[in-house]
From TrEMBL:
It comes from the Bacteria. This is GIY-YIG domain-containing protein. It comes from Brevibacillus reuszeri. InterPro entries: GIY-YIG_endonuc_sf.
């Protein structure tokens, strides 16, 4: 099964082609960069969207940030979490891991859940416990 970021992007592109005029923005940061810019305001901080973690070109986790939570809170909750030794910690402590974001406009938040489910179903990331 292809779990690469390129495959994720192709799924997103197919999804977006089905929803005309949905204006999302894609951003990606190394985990170490996110830690460095934590106190800075980012354009995506309070936006809803999808976030995912990539380690060695494999999607490890896909999550969503709803309108009331925002991407900043969800992402920092994940990278500051305590995981099982030799499990989630191997992802969040790896400075080469990237965190990708698909930032949705606030008025299009309702599409997030369907994209999250689609990505989890198609990619089956290792750390998503609620696999469909």
């Amino acid at each position: 099964m292809n779990q690469s970021e390129g495959h994720l992007q192709s799924i997103v592109n197919i999804y977006l082609s089905r929803i005309a005029n949905l204006n999302v923005k894609h951003e990606s940061y190394l985990i170490r960069t996110l830690r460095e810019i934590k106190s800075e305001k980012q354009s995506w901080n309070h936006h809803p969207g999808i976030y995912y973690f990539v380690q060695n070109d494999v999607i490890k986790y896909v999550g969503k940030a709803n309108l009331d939570t925002g991407l900043r809170r969800r992402i920092y909750n994940q990278i500051e979490a305590f995981g099982e030794v030799d499990r989630w910690d191997t992802v969040i402590k790896d400075d080469s891991v990237t965190c990708g974001m698909i930032v949705f406009p606030s008025d299009d938040w309702q599409w997030i859940a369907t994209l999250e489910l689609l990505l989890i179903e198609k990619l089956r990331p290792e750390y998503n416990k609620r696999l469909p």
